[in-house]
Specification:
By secondary structure, this protein is mostly beta strands. It folds into two domains: about 160 residues, no CATH class; about 120 residues, Sandwich (Jelly Rolls), CATH 2.60.120. It contains two helices and 26 strands. The strands form five sheets. It has a seven-stranded parallel β-sheet, with no helix packed on it. Strands 2, 6, 8, 9, 11, 12 and 25 form a seven-stranded parallel β-sheet that branches. Strands 14-16-23-18-21 form a five-stranded mixed β-sheet. A hairpin with a 4-residue loop joins β3 and β4. The longest helix is centred in the middle third of the chain and has 9 residues. It is globular, with a radius of gyration of 20 Å.
Amino acid sequence: MYFSGVHFLTTARSSLMKYTVVTEAGLMDPTLIIYSPAIKISYNVHTMENLLITGNEHDGMEIMKNDVYTNAAIRHSVISNNLGTGVSVRGSFFTVENCTFIENVKAGFEYNPHYTTYEAFQIRAGIMEPHILNENLNSIHLDNEGREFVITQQTAESMGETFQVEIECNSEHRVVLDLIDYNPDTATENVTVFDGPISGIGPNTRRWMIEDDLVDFPIESSARFLTVRWVVNGIATGRFAFVVRSSMLMIRNKRRSKNTCNVLGPHLNKYLKFVAVGKKTKQRNQYTCTNVYRIMCYKRENV
């Protein structure tokens, strides 16, 4: 008897899933023959340990986005005999440690940051009580290690408006902003993030224009403030959503050494980490170490 599987929504609290067997999952709708991953995580702040994910009708695990600082990981687990990919990851900042991928129909592990309009809608639908970027939202204060989600709404009529929100954290912390969804009509919508408060924005203020600087995200403030400016000249698509959090941590080195994992990575990735993956990892998956682009590793320090 198959079931749809386990789904962690976007605003689900951080959790630990361990010593669990997930099998015979993945049949979302038997009448329409729609499949789903055995474990789907919309926004990953979770740790998975000692799992057996086997014999499922689709991917064993699918992760849409990973939080920058929660050290999201899967450890000491076996992912086998799934009719899709073993583990499919759409975002960086994820660790695979001492895992075995064997006899999955597609890749053992796949990294591909693309997702469809429907998948983006599912991520946004899982945000409980988000802030809505409009004329009523002027500022957001983040508690230490706090996290807030901000979305935009689709409009039925054309408008010409500029909306700004100032995000502030406590001293000795920094604001980190990551995109949850961004695929608007760029002829009518533009987003700029400024490194500072609204009152301090000037010609020389450090800034990120999403269309030009997308590769830099997630971004981190140099002090206590970030300001987001959303300019709309037309009909808003509702496809701009982001998460902000307060953190004292820095991104550590993410080194890839002695990695023999079955990796399908059709796009450049900056922050994936594989630790002590053994030779069993590369047995009898359809793809073996298929990387269209190399996986790169960087070090970023707090300013």
